[in-house]
Specification:
This protein is mainly α and 340 residues long. It contains 16 helices and three strands. α7 (121-135) packs antiparallel against α8 (147-160) and α8 (147-160) crosses α9. The longest helix is centred in the middle third of the chain and has 22 residues, at 198-219. The radius of gyration is 22 Å and the shape is globular.
Length: 340
Amino acid sequence: MRPDTPAENVDHAAEAARLERTAGLYPEDAEALLLRAAAHLEVSGDRPAATRLYDRLLSSAADSPALENPSLVRALKASNLWEYDHEAEARAIIDGVRAAAPRDPAAWVIVAEALESHDELEAAHETFTEGARLLVADGAEPPYPTHPLLYGRHRVRRMLGLDHDEWDALADTLHSMPVSLDELHDPKRVWSLGSDNPADLEAEISRLRAELGAYREALSRPFPVAMLHWPAGELAELLEAYPALAAEYPSYEDHLATIEAALRELASSGTPNLGVVPGTVPSYEAFAASESASPTDPTLLPQYATTLAARGLAVSWPPQRGAACWCGSGRTYGECHGAE
């Protein structure tokens, strides 16, 4: 589907089928492709088929650790199930996601919004708060992916009639649209849609435009400036197959240190939206073939990293508080490459 295709002109079932076929051709991207396919199925109204795709992803994770974000898949499955009268199963999955305490803000936002959309406001507030407590560090600038947690919490608190607290004030600060969060999240807004007063309707249209602007801004964020990371096994395989690249990678330790140093230098120069993207030898060889170039050409390496980042495969840098280090050591970032 072209990015400029109007939504009303999309055959969602056909697009889902196309994405499923593409996932079969590119198994390394299957998770992202199947999640997009499931979204098309949900929009088309075929929610049981979307659930089958979520189950397919989760069953593959049981067979191998290839699934990058199982909590996100479970959250999406729960939200989808609740929409076609599988409330008990959805609630059980949501409880499981909350107990797992994922480090991905999206999983928290999805389960909290599922609760909110079914008028479970107290539970939604608790879920938004749990996610924020886990992922938003005191006194630090919240990472961009955590902003929806704070915005959602702000919205639910307004609906509950609760007073502003420090996190609500932080959400107000992060929000950059002309219409304030308090106005956007005013519970009385819904009544203006049924008003006979043109001024009320004009005000609501103005608010909706501001919200649309915020969504467009989020969607238009560029993919990260990503550094290419070869896991130890992949780097050994790469250098065995292409010894000419040894000059680029004197050792695995040097490779990791170079990545961290480059990211810190970019951050200090004010470059936003940084990331690390893992490479594999088969996908690198396929990329080189697509460029009609030799894998031994070192100028291909940054192009390969950019291509992977554009496909949504980069991991945000620096990792969130308490998250595992990007290098795959199993230690937290603060204990590993994030240590001063």
